[in-house]
């Protein structure tokens, strides 16, 4: 019943603000126009299209505000007048009462405000979809901002998520295409993400981690947090002074190096994704500021670390290899990597997949690199893979969203930004660094406890594999000279098995790259080493 009531409200808001008129003409069906006929003379029509869309998002709540924030970073796909209005969603959402805010903070901290702060501003500094921020001064003189979650916001979110789950169930039940998209799993992932954003203790921990990752870095500054004054619904952190990333006019007045600023944004993204594996996944303009104290070497300031993302080691590796292969137009390798990663079924025809990727990507890469959208190229690749039954990869959803945000902001700062020029050498360096001997030695030490746990299984695995290879060696389908080597001498059979095993590993390394061998599970690696040792012993 709650989902039905929420659905009615959404339909009413869409009708009231006549958002149907923002759709392309070919999508404004007659049935839709008839359904909205009672609202044809709505007073909202006197507003600009951008104002109508913004007000509708605000009225519908945080989930729709988040959607509007994402749209505001993509001036390449929506009109400029809509972008200008949607930018107001970043930190100018209608605030709730200042006195109510003070009462909420006082209750959460368990003390009167006067006992903690020497000054506390009742007027909000910023008001966003999930929380509101006020300025204050601690008793020790530190200037801070106090962030508190909007009261009763969880109820609204619960209704929206319930409605989304209901729609997902219908989609999965009645659409084969919908089942492949795994909508229920996506809704659950989104539910986890947005409810995590309501827990400010989690955001405080994220901010601390991100600050450690960029400690003393000239690229990014993360404000300090005051743990003793943080609770689940209240957070106190250092107040920063900077310029919002979209204020290009101010940057020009201060002669800021916009090209360097845009390139540093890209470098921060790749550093977070690949070096730290901990990336800010909500990089809309309201969360990104710029320090103008040194215009020739500007740096970023990150706010609102509620939503952070990370990838598995395998996903990191395959993503980097895919991007490099796309850059080189090596579509065969892109297809093979998708199969190896498990992103598409193992039964997928590599040739057919390669052809489909080439058909989508080749027109894109015929344009000058600076005109190519890095994020859209990656999304086109994933969309092509979905035609080959690639399921939705929840771990990549936040990454795609963040990449679109980063690229949108970068092109706003410096329209000639060539993201490929920055990304290509970075990915090359990262892959070399990852499989350098020093890095592999660190990984070996990290996995040592797991190896020791599995070591007792190695003799059994070695014996079982040897027996299987001996059976294969006696098969008439093998070349005669290989079969003739297999006699009744146990040492000779084991010798042959070890040689076949090592030869297979070498062939795998040569064909797929030695970095694949580096990612073998501990037991497989131990098996490989054990076979080599056995062969050497017999040879002696």
Description:
- It contains 24 helices and eleven strands.
- It is 59% helix and 8% strand.
- The strands form three sheets. Strands 1, 2, 3, 4 and 6 form a five-stranded antiparallel β-sheet that branches. Strands 5-10-9-7 form a four-stranded mixed β-sheet, with helices on one face. Strands 8-11 form a two-stranded antiparallel ribbon.
- It is of the alpha+beta class and 540 residues long.
- The longest helix is centred in the last third of the chain and has 23 residues, at 490-512.
- It has helices spanning 2-16, 30-35, 49-60, 62-72, 80-86, 98-109, 153-174, 176-180, 183-197, 200-213, 248-253, 258-276, 313-327, 331-341, 350-365, 374-386, 394-413, 419-434, 437-454, 458-473, 480-484, 490-512, 514-518, 522-539; strands at 117-120, 126-127, 131-138, 143-149, 220-221, 234-238, 243-244, 279-280, 288-291, 299-302, 308-309.
Summarize the structure.
The protein is α+β, with helices and mostly antiparallel strands. It has helices at 2-16, 30-35, 49-60, 62-72, 80-86, 98-109, 153-174, 176-180, 183-197, 200-213, 248-253, 258-276, 313-327, 331-341, 350-365, 374-386, 394-413, 419-434, 437-454, 458-473, 480-484, 490-512, 514-518, 522-539; strands at 117-120, 126-127, 131-138, 143-149, 220-221, 234-238, 243-244, 279-280, 288-291, 299-302, 308-309.
